[in-house]
């Protein structure tokens, strides 16, 4: 730029020389006036002075030009620097919006940054890794700041609650061989950390953040692999920080300044999760013995209560035969588009024939009530009424299916047979319906196509819906589901409360303290069993208040009534076992200290410590034991003890407030991953890319929800912004040149004309006039102009003041944001008594909008939108939510995004910390405890009042094991009435039963491992029918006013009997009664049964055979026996000709249908599918069938004390087994001789050349004398490679001596033979000539004859 200025100066100088006189170029200096040679001439002096002034002016102009050009260069340099900074900021914002934000929240027009800057040059995979890199780096920096507490006061040290919601799932990845997909097991863990630091409850500093970690593929889906994957990403546990977080600089002693730390593990009821929690408990137990006790750590396990309730719902749905299978078949049918269309058409016809459409002017008053009821019915649960299908009309669904057109397919014989069978059933004269039905069943048993399977499903569904009891069953299932759906709704509501607390999303008319109190109260109700008691109370309430007669109609089937009663007992018993029984055990008992006063707290804590000293296994190791051992209240109640009580109560309150009771977070995380990873088209992602996508999916989802809440409180609605964009920049009849977003920016940059006195005068005069035409408006303006000119100066000065005030209001309004959705309109917020002469700064927004007018509001709406955007960017949620690493543009702030970092450094950091497999050094650092601790307490295993150190523990456990064996062998359902009577020894007379202490129970549920069986107390009643024994029993004791059943475990029941007859008990007699429900279905609320037959008695004796265990031989001096090598598996050579059948137990009991059994809290297997462990410990015992006999009167001993003696004579079964063994040995010897002879013959044959093998299929290539009808449509023709239709004729052809046969169409054989006529014709004719003589099928004979004639013509 300076070089450009120099030629301009030179040119200006030459121009000056051109106007000068040439004589002045060599003229000497002027002489003084008094010089003799000087002629004083005034004209010459004036010209010289003028010339000098002109010269000075030219120099000044040149200098000014040079300085101006220098300043211009400086401004250009500054502009370039600013543009570069803006470009970098633009690239950062584009990166945030592309990789760290959701598209669903980017509807603000001011966020549109246009095309990406040239600095942002990264593809999808590189940008994804950069986003993960920035997030993990920012988290590591912020976490170190959060836990960097330096305080000398112990009370000011923070408390930390680490909540881990973990679950494993199977996912498909594109990492298989040759680009194929494979299924791998992955672990997902949602980490939430709540850090509180307070000396009192009122002054609390809360930090609640979530760590988004990726899904981790497991090399081995076992407990060790799950534990290593879990510990790799854990932020801290037992003085250990996950090695993946250590890669980002987080120190191992991160929690050195934390006073208390509780790790809450939330998961579903799986064995792997329980085993993982057991290892964590062992780590806590080892830490208690270690020297470092600065941070007190404990661990708490929470089973997902939604899963627990769902397991009960599953068994209730499976209780009625045919209900769940019908739903599954309907689901398969609705997968087909054709069925859905037909179903919709049938429903339309049904609605059209049952409803009448009436056009009215005004809607009736009941429309709103009907709408509310419909919304209530469409919810997951409703407190009143039932969700019956199609208006609860029993014939509606069957009429719907009848209205559907029948499925027709001319090429399917099965469907034709079904149609004929339907016609024969409707018209008896049309054919034999039974024979056609049998034919259909035989055809459906064969391999069928998809259409045939759907036809079978349709027929079965139609039959089920047309059965008279099916509507009753549907309404009964819905009736039984109501209490469980209520519980699920309550759990989902608490999950919503936790989410509102975390995002500070307060509902109307509520505060954060109210939300915390609601969350804490619900958790404490779950901990003390009130939650389960409410579910049982809902069962009783619905049974008593609901009128099943009106809903279900008349039902005379006794099996439906009996099943309904059994499922009611099962639902309440299962709920009691899952929700109420744990409340009597630790660690739930510890939460009863939360709301106690200091004196009660000391009493309860002392009692808990006494229980722990008496039996350590009665208290859980991971949570209760560390808390009980932290303080010994043996001395006086001083200030230190009181401070400890307050601290512990505050910590328990925090756990109850922030701990979830369901795994909805991780389930939603799985859903987000499925949506992010799997597309309709395209290749599946590799595990590395899937891990990165899982981090960003969770991170972006959290930021999108927070941004939605911020925009709801700071920005106008989406519709308001869209209407504003549509209105700005438009003129009548002129199409705007730029888009909507650009028009908003242009409108905000325009300068508006200031308000003048004339405008104030015109506004005042036009206020009273109506709508004017163009001609009228022109004339009015002329009149107002003339009137304005006639006004005096005082009046104009008054209008000038009014205009200045309005302009100040307009200027103030430009600084006010637009109104937000969900808030009251601005005119409603204004105070009606507000004076009009207030300053503009003190006026409300509604008053300012009224002063400015609607036209001006439309013009300045874009400027006000900038204020909304600024409020959104500066919202306090960005600095208070979580770790404060997000802003309005993305989940990671712009100052934490450094695009100058090289891609190689980013890739290395992400691969080193995220995708690296743990080596041996890393595995050694992970704490792996050696001790084996208990995770199940005595109370949890056996019930209240029974401990392993109790003197009757072994005997009670034997009785419980024998009774569980009796229940499984006899397949006793829930609701079975049993009587337990102790059998005592009497001196001189053998034994006798004690009828005074006998007890009646209804069987509840049976848990397999550990063994827990629930009884419901049966109460005798006098009302009801008179049975043979004249006895009736009810589930509820109505005489005492008790409204709920009394549940008890089998261990507690037998413990009461053993304690009452200590030392004299010889056994327990168990009588199983055959009962009948006394009332019809509408009288189910009585819950009463009557005995109708004789009881079958079984004796549970005290002697029990110990479980079969291998005897371990110990050698001296530490010598160990060499382990036997396992032989390789070999197929059995032969089987015995006659297998001895196992002995069957005597059927001395009336067979009843088996009710659903309770699934194990650590397993989802049922009691009838797998052997059960009847012991509460880890030992397993195998139950034999038939060991529960009819009773001691027949002289047979109970299976639990059956012994095998060596001197017993051989039985008939033993002799049969010996004979079978001898026969099998003879067969084996004969087969061995045959094999040896065949081997000698094979060795004698000449060897085959290398590369060829003896044929195991055919000795020659060509056609065989075999032809058949294709049983399926899967085979293909060897000649044309087309499918051979099912039922069509096909011929067998061996194309190789070492490969299986192939098949040919009958129409392709002629062309196939013609291709090699010399070698194939004679062989084909010779083979096909045998078909008419060998086959009895007329279709094969006719086809072979036609084919033979064609070949002979060749």
Automatic annotation (TrEMBL):
Residues 1265-1339 form the PARP-type domain. Residues 817-841, 1123-1222 are annotated as: Disordered. InterPro entries: HMG_box_dom, HMG_box_dom_sf, Znf_PARP. This is HMG box domain-containing protein. Residues 1137-1150, 1202-1218 have a biased composition (Basic and acidic residues). PROSITE patterns: HMG_BOX_2, ZF_PARP_2. Residues 1123-1136 have a biased composition (Basic residues). Transmembrane segments: none annotated. CDD domains: HMG-box_SF. Residues 1172-1185 have a biased composition (Acidic residues). Keywords: DNA-binding, Metal-binding, Nucleus, Signal, Zinc. Residues 751-819 form the HMG box domain. Residues 751-819 bind DNA. The keyword Translocase does not apply. Residues 1-27 form the signal peptide. The keyword DNA-binding applies. Residues 1159-1171 have a biased composition (Low complexity). It comes from the Eukaryota.
